[in-house]
Model the fold of this input.
Amino acid sequence: MAACCAATATAMTTTSASATTIEKPSSSAASTRRVAPLTRGGARVSVFFATAAASSARSRGGRHRARAGAGASLVVLASSDAVSTAMSSETMSADGAVALTRNGKKRVVVTGMGCVTAMGNDVDVFYEKLLNGESSITPITEWDAHEDMATTIAGEIKGFDPEEFMTKKMARRVDPFIAYQIVAAKKALQAAKLPFAKGDEMDAAVDKTRAGCLIGSAMGGMHSFSTATEALVTVGHKKMNPFCIPFAITNMGSALTAMDLGFMGPNYSISSACASGNFCILNSVDHIRNGEADLMLAGASDAAILPSGMGGFCSVKAMSKRNDDPTRASRPWDKARDGFVMGEGAGVLVLESLENALKRGAPVLCEVLGGNYSCDAHHMTEPHPDGKGVALAIDRALDACGLDAKDVDYVNAHATSTPAGDMAELRVLQEKFGKNPGFKINSTKGMIGHLLGAASAVEAVACVKAITDGWVHPNVNLDDPEDDVDLALLVGPTKERLDVKVALSNSFGFGGASHLALVPVRPRHNSAVLFGAYEGGGGGGGAGGGGEGGGEGSELRELWRRLF
Done:
């Protein structure tokens, strides 16, 4: 069964105090320079990422625009000039080498992303629809929602097409949560300029003994289990699908993905409710930093839009009843919010050691800075009214990364559109980050619903895109904000330009509807994932929206000083 995230986190081992270096590939378009490493330790559920290096930069009125190769533009932590000014002689040299470690801890970067959502299976299309404020919430069509069921709307994936990443026969055979994550994982590999099938190309590109999969799920194979239960009741156990158990357990997605790719490194799944994706990202980072893997597929997947899943959440009165107005049902921080809207899908990141990424000339999107977690120890489903667990997770994350609250530019909030949860989180965010110039908060769930365990993974994709593109998506359906809401801190009803150097992705959750009747006490899991801009050279970059960099040189120097 799914491994417990806290139990699987391995201790950090310091191997050397000196920085390891590597020459950048000759194919890189970026100018050669030595850059100080980001080094963070320990298992956490807050992660920071940073944007990829640019090939050239120029200063204009104190602001910097970075240009990446192949016509792509990325928002970066600092321009070449600013980084050169910020770096000390200890972390820079004329040899053009990039530091790969600091204090024995490997740098970890994101080189590819994949997603399967109700907005489509393409990361760029997905984020463009978010920027446009489009909603994917509709009446349920895959099955006849019970007339007496309180909620009959969802962020449902319709007409799922596995494309070339999986045969349609295989997609029909496995549980949807498995199909979604396999496709998302392969699309992430494709974006990372890696093969996505067994064969000579994969053998040449990846040391498969050092490549692993850590893709979580909150609910696992609910479709498989529900079908098996129905068969047991109607025709008896001898007629049950022999795959019902393998396809129901949460680790089977990671297992089948690894089997399909031939990856022989760390492989398991984490189920930590809605924070599952964050836990998988941080544990994957630790596997790389501990030297147990060079590359990890990390993320989460869930598919619980079926009668038992919807009925379970309806029974605890957790979901919106706004069935007559589906696109406006999910409304974080609005006074009229009445519960979350369920979504489904998967998000997967390709995480690599910086050394591995540079050796193969990978397109570096951002750098993972670190993260942390906490537990409310308060209530089975509701957050602590003072947000103590939320604040603790954020404080631990910042401390683990060597950052101050003032360094955070953007938060993708957990904000599920529930009466109890939204404001408890927002009050903490406003208190900690409210004085940061230009700081913004948004919630992705207003448009795609709550993807349960996959929510944090898909929202990690949104965070990285915010960094690389320089745009943050709007908050939708916020017609009548709660009195405590500081609207100046929230992204408005349309997309906004934002130079994101450090982004925080929050995810909190309880055990899930299928556990509520069985477990008398289930503490909430709080996680905060921080993403920050990467300026390291040699990373090729990825296509983006041409966002402008920003920040005065003194601010950049101070941030880099404390990071390194």
User: Anything to note?
Assistant: Residues 109-137+153-304+347-359 form a domain with the Peroxisomal Thiolase; Chain A, domain 1 fold (CATH 3.40.47.10). Residues 1-47, 50-95, 511-524, 542-552 have pLDDT under 50 and may be disordered.
